[in-house]
Amino acid sequence: MGGNSERTPRGLGAAAGLGLAAGAVGTAAMTSAQVWLYRLTGGEASDAPAKVGERMLAPVGIQVRKERRPALNTAMHVLYGSSWGKVFGLAWGRGERPPGPVQGLVFGAGVWATSLAMLPALGLAEAPWRQPPAALAQDLGFHLVYGFATAAAHEAFTA
Predict the structure, then answer these.
(1) Least trusted range by pLDDT, from 44-58, 92-106, 119-133
(2) DSSP structure string for 73-92
(3) Average pLDDT in the 86-102 region?
(4) pLDDT score of 4 more than 50
(5) Are 3 and 97 in contact (CB under 8 A)?
(6) Are the C-beta atoms of residues 155 and 149 closer than 8 Å to each other?
(7) Are 49 and 73 contacting, i.e. CB atoms less than 8 angstroms apart?
(8) Which of 68, 74, 82, 101 is a good FRET partner for 49, with 20 to 30 A between their CA atoms?
(9) Closest CA to 115 of 52, 42, 29
(10) Is 99 exposed, middle or buried (0-12, 13-18, 19+ CB in 10 A)?
(11) Burial per residue of 15-25, b for 16 or more beta-carbon CB atoms within 10 angstroms, e otherwise
(12) Which residue has the higher pLDDT, 126 or 92?
């Protein structure tokens, strides 16, 4: 990811689509890092994506059975990460220069900060100041992997 090569500016639709694809790659990288660390440490993945999904489905009368929660968790995680990729594409993917690693890391940190505000506001997580610093650092690390991989994928897709 050099961020120095010139390219043709893209329209909104192309920038959003490329960002969506890059966000899917970033989500896969983040998920891989999580799976690796949790296997190594015996930790567990957050169930916040499933909780958000259940909140979204409840108003239309859909209740998720307990055995389907892991699938919903994965689906919501992929949807969330891919959707943020669209934002990345729109924010940084329309210019003449591709976004580089710094933009990816800033982006990942921004997505992490947003989740720190959003999940407690929804009553789905503790406020950040009530969470253990090690858990916050680990989650930030996962989001930095996401942002870096999203930027790298975006650059690869637009090369």
Answers:
(1) 92-106
(2) HHHHHHHHHHHHHHHHHHHH
(3) 82
(4) no
(5) yes
(6) no
(7) yes
(8) 101
(9) 52
(10) buried
(11) bbbbbbbbbbb
(12) 126
Q: How many CB atoms lie within 10 A of CB 153?
A: 24
How many Å apart are CA 89 and CA 137, to the nearest integer? 26
**Which 3 state secondary structure label does DSSP give 155?**
helix
Give the contacts of 145 (CB within 8 A, at least 6 positions apart): 26, 29, 30, 33, 108
Task: Single out the residue of 17, 156, 146 nearest to residue 81, CA to CA.
Answer: 146
Residue 96 has a pLDDT of 65
Residue at token pair 């489905």 = 57
Query: Where are the extended beta strands (E) located within 6-118?
Result: none
pLDDT at residue 94 tops 90? no
Q: What is the pTM of this model?
A: 0.89
Residue 103: pLDDT above 60? yes
What is the torsional sign of CA 154, 75, 106, 137?
negative
